[in-house]
Amino acid sequence: MKFVAEIDIMPLPALLDPQGKAVASNMGNMGLPEVVGVRIGKHVTLEIEAADKVVAESKIVEACEKLLVNQIMEHFTFRIQEA
Which long-range contacts (CB under 8 A, 24 or more apart) does 64-69 make? Predict the structure, then answer.
């Protein structure tokens, strides 16, 4: 079976996000002072071949933990569906 995973990788809440802070600081200059608390992360889309959804999910977690996510500074969530 083929699955598509949408993975969101974000900085841990306790860590500073200098890129998000820079964007939030400039929102006021752009006439958007209501926009605050910006956090910037990454979005990854993967296609995966697996016997079933449980196997696909375990492979996605493995890919995140081994390659895609720096677990010292980031956390991840994902959604998976059949392609």
Answer: 64/7, 64/9, 68/7, 68/9, 68/44, 69/9
